[in-house]
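Query structure, 167 C-alpha cells:
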C-alpha cells in the first residue's frame, strides 16, 4: 500500500532547502502562476516531481519518497533513510554493507523456497531486505552521479557506449 504523501514531501523539501515557488517554476520551466496553482491544489504532475528530485534542490529524502510513491511502497522506508552520512564514500560503504545483508537474505530465501511449505512471514521479511538494498543502491548511484556532476542520462549513454565497444 502506498501511503507516501508526495505533495507533503515536496513541501518538506521546499522547507529543508528554502526553495520558493518561483524557483520551482523556473526549474520546471513553467510560469510562476502554474507552480502557484500546484501548491494551491496540492498536486504536481509526476514529470515535474522527477525534475525537482534530479535537480540541485533534490535530496535523498525526496528521491526516496518519490521512488516509494511511484513504486507504491510504504512510507516506512523513509524512516530508515539516515543510516549513513551524506557524502558519496559513506553512502557507498553503507550500500556495500546493505548488499552483504541482502546476500544473506538471498541465501535464506533460496532455502525457504526449496521446501514444500515455505514460511510466508520469513519470505516477506527476507524479500523486504532485497527491497531495502535495491533502494539503497539507487540512492547511492544517484548521489554519486550528482556529486560528480553527471546526469543519469549521461551515465546511461556512456554505459551503452562501453557495452557496445565490448560487443
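Result returned for the query:
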Amino acid at each position: 500500500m502506498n501511503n507516501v504523501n508526495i505533495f507533503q514531501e515536496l513541501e518538506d523539501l521546499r522547507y529543508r532547502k528554502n526553495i520558493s515557488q518561483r524557483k520551482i517554476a523556473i526549474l520546471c520551466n513553467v510560469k510562476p502562476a502554474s507552480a502557484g496553482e500546484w501548491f494551491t491544489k496540492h498536486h504536481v504532475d509526476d514529470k515535474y516531481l522527477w525534475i525537482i528530485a534530479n535537480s540541485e534542490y533534490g535530496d535523498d529524502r525526496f528521491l526516496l519518497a518519490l521512488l516509494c510513491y511511484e513504486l507504491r511502497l510504504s512510507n516506512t522506508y523513509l524512516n530508515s533513510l539516515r543510516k549513513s552520512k551524506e557524502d558519496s564514500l559513506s553512502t557507498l560503504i553503507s550500500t556495500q554493507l546493505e548488499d552483504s545483508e541482502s546476500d544473506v537474505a538471498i541465501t535464506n530465501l533460496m532455502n525457504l523456497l526449496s521446501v514444500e511449505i515455505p514460511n510466508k512471514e520469513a519470505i516477506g521479511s527476507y524479500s523486504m531486505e532485497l527491497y531495502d538494498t535495491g533502494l539503497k543502491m539507487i540512492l547511492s548511484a544517484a548521489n554519486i552521479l550528482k556529486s560528480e556532476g553527471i546526469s543519469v542520462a549521461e551515465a546511461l549513454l556512456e554505459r551503452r557506449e562501453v557495452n557496445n565497444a565490448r560487443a
